[in-house]
Design goal:
alpha+beta; globular; 3 helices; single chain; 84 residues
Length: 84
C-alpha cells in the first residue's frame, strides 16, 4: 500500500487556511497518515503558482482541491492512491 504525500499550501492571515488545516488533519488522521504544510509567504515560486487559489491541497504533487477543501473527495483521492 503506497503512502501518499499530502501537502497543504497556505499563506498568513488566511481564514480558509485554518479551515483547510482542520479538514486535511481530519482526513489524514483517519487514514493513519501525516501531512505537511508549505507557505507561499516565503516561496516566490509557490506564490506565483498558487496565489489566487490558496489554500491548495496536493497529493503526490498533483493539485486535488483549493479554497474550501472537500473532505469526502480528499479521502477518496488518498484512498485511491493508497490502493495503487
Amino acid at each position: 500500500m503506497a503512502k501518499p504525500e499530502v501537502v497543504l499550501i497556505t499563506k498568513a492571515d488566511c481564514h480558509l487556511c485554518a479551515e483547510a488545516r482542520d479538514a486535511v488533519g481530519r482526513v489524514t488522521s483517519a487514514l493513519g497518515l501525516g501531512w505537511t504544510e508549505q507557505s507561499v509567504d516565503n516561496d516566490a515560486e509557490l506564490r506565483e503558482r498558487y496565489a489566487e487559489e490558496i489554500p491548495v491541497v496536493l497529493v503526490n504533487g498533483i493539485q486535488r482541491d483549493f479554497w474550501k477543501i472537500d473532505e469526502i473527495r480528499l479521502d477518496r483521492v488518498i484512498q485511491r492512491v493508497m490502493s495503487q
